[in-house]
Amino acid sequence: MSQDAGIYARESALLDRYVQVAVAQGRVISVSFPTEPEPDARPEHALLDRIVAYLGGEPDGFDDVQVALTLPTDRRAVLETVQTVPYGTTATADQVAQMTPGYDPEEDDTGVREALAANPAPLFVPTHRVRDAAGSEPAGVAKRLRAVEGS
């Protein structure tokens, strides 16, 4: 990934909005799906090229993308678990809780859902693959991302 820090955005007809990525020190710090990009967002970045290809149907799990997860440890653990859900598959919030070290699915359902909703980098931390809980991406975006992946 490019080491260029900044905000990058490109419009997606499939999502009917922009995909906006913020990068610092070679790591993704945020991903959002605004209807209008930040005024200083630039349209050219290798990650945006990959996202466009992905949205066009080219499989990409984005496993090599480094994401800066600056969240409390328990939320970070949940999001790190979500990163292990493979391209083209889905999981439930209960399954994510079961797979996350230190989480008890019967007691921590709320914690898992809060972590998913606080995801700073949807797509690269694929909360859209958790089919019964909302991530931080708009619901319509999550549905379209699952459709792209055939799940």
Give a quick set of tags describing it:
single chain, 30% helix, alpha+beta, 151 residues, three-stranded antiparallel β-sheet, Arc Repressor Mutant, subunit A, globular
Outline the structure in words.
It is a single chain. This protein has 151 residues and is of the alpha+beta class. The protein folds into two domains: 6-55; 73-148, Winged helix-like DNA-binding domain superfamily/Winged helix DNA-binding domain (Arc Repressor Mutant, subunit A), CATH 1.10.10. Helices cover 30% and strands 14% of the residues. It contains five helices and three strands, in the order βββααααα. A hairpin with a 2-residue loop joins strand 2 and strand 3. The radius of gyration is 15 Å and the shape is globular. The mean pLDDT is 93.
Give a quick precis of the structure:
By secondary structure, the chain is of the alpha+beta class. It is 30% helix and 14% strand.
What's the end-to-end separation, in Å? 27 Å
Overall helicity: 25-40%
Main β-sheet, in a few words? 3 strands, antiparallel
Any idea what the CATH superfamily of the largest domain is called? Winged helix-like DNA-binding domain superfamily/Winged helix DNA-binding domain
CATH architectural arrangement of the largest domain: Orthogonal Bundle
Silhouette: globular
Task: Provide the residue-averaged pLDDT.
Answer: 93
Give the total of beta strands: 3
Structural class: alpha+beta
Which strands sit side by side, in order, in the main sheet? 1-2-3
What's the helix-strand series?
Answer: EEEHHHHH
Strand content: 5-15%
Write down the Rg: 15 Å
In the CATH hierarchy, what is the class of the largest domain? Answer: Mainly Alpha
Provide the CATH topology of the largest domain: Arc Repressor Mutant, subunit A
Number of discrete domains: 2
Residue stretches low in confidence (pLDDT < 50, at least 5 long) are: none
Number of helices: 5
